[in-house]
Design goal:
alpha/beta, Aldehyde Dehydrogenase, Chain A, domain 1, 2 domains, 7-stranded mixed beta sheet, 6-stranded mixed beta sheet, 23% strand, binds nicotinamide-adenine-dinucleotide, Succinate-semialdehyde dehydrogenase/glutarate-semialdehyde dehydrogenase, Ald_DH/histidinol_DH, Aldehyde_DH_dom, Aldehyde_DH_Superfamily, oxidoreductase activity, acting on the aldehyde or oxo group of donors, NAD or NADP as acceptor
Length: 474
Amino acid sequence: MYIDGQWVTERSHFLVTNPASGDVIGEVPDCTSEDIDAAITAASEALKSWKQTTAYERSGLLYRAWEIMLSRKQELAELMTREQGKPLKASLNEVQYGADFLLWFAEEAKRINGQTIPSSRDNQRFITQKVPVGVVGAITPWNYPISMITRKLAPALAVGCTLVLKPAEQTPLCAKAMAEVFEEAGFPAGVINVITSRDPAPVGEAFCSDPRIRKLAFTGSTAVGKKLNAQAAAHMKRVSMELGGHAPAIVFPDADPAHAAKGLSLVKFLNTGQACISPNRIFVHRVHAEAFLAELTARVCRLKAGSGFEAGNSIGPLINEAALQKVDSQVQDALAKGATLYTGGHRLTDGELRGGLFYAPTVLAGVTPEMRIYYEETFGPVAPVVIYGDEDDVLAMANDTEYGLAAYVYSNNLSTAVKAFEALEFGIIGINDINPTSAAAPFGGMKSSGLGREGAQEGIEEYLETKLGGFALG
Ligand code: NAD
């Protein structure tokens, strides 16, 4: 752990394992309640001077962290593949995406402007000033163990907040490596604190109830997000919640089915389906059903599962046994209720996959609302296909979910695409685009997918308060 600029190791530890092999790859300290308090104290003391630094000083440090992160890109990516299991190429992409937030917010730090506002009284002047919200408690997940850290820390640091980070218990080594990057960049002691915990609940409770923490930034499941949001509300804290998703993907009659199948095979199986923006219901118009399913199945059959260190493997392990069981139970439920299995549908245990948590990339067709997978987030390598016939109905079907994070549309007709973009109740919509994400673009969801946005100019507002000055002139 990294508290007040010191590395803390003398605690009981918990083990970190490689989900591809089951091997233990490290151990990290299990924080005590005193550690949580010490980290919050350090952040709150450091805030006094950090918030007085100039935007140019903060920008310079973020810029330096960006340089260090890129110089360590290979090392960070290899660590991520060992700890989380994703293919090395995907880890390299994530380190780059994570670094992008440092650069973007290093630049944005200098563009935090207030306003002058005309008054109806000629002897009155209004000005506003943007000020940092204060100490931030950040909680991050394991599926994107580096970029979810920088997506929160970079804007918080840019505006002059200090923070305590608690990473997921499955991927604390990536967080430790990021703390080293920030330390080397020269951030003052106490500005960034990292605590690791086997049991996240007490840390969450402290973040929500300690009056010195002014904002909670959380990425994780909707169930935990709702719980934390309720706890934070009791103490009137600002929150950002990046939660679960259940993305629809619609292939319209005027789309190219082969192009759609290619794109959706890529985005669905990215990170082995363990992504909040992963398509969870693929609606294909019946005129394309046969061509789409043939192309999708052919592509999915070519995906190879295994160690992320072997070139050519694109399917990594699931994060733990419970995740694997959840995926399989959704698939078995769908099959029992009449879905058709095109490929996959079982755990993979042959050869080197024996020790890991691998599930065969799966295509299901004939998925209906009676099946659990139609409404429940899967977070695994399963592509559920729904065949539809009515273009007007499909938009309502796509919106029929408690989630509102991402949606995808395939169409070669401008009017169809615009109408779909306007009708879909989701925060991020890819139109013939499977990667609608960037440090410069706002990321976040509606409904049970969360509150607030990360990245972009919206992402920096989440860490700012607006102060109004009214001046009466004599
Ligand atoms: P999770 O909610 O179990 O865990 C996420 C984080 O919350 C971890 O750090 C965990 O330790 C912590 N946590 C768990 N219980 C807690 C508690 N009671 N108090 C405080 N902290 C607690 O989620 P998960 O299943 O590990 O992660 C996957 C989920 O995250 C999926 O639902 C996915 O969609 C979502 N996610 C969302 C985004 C987004 O940007 N919207 C990005 C990545 C993941």
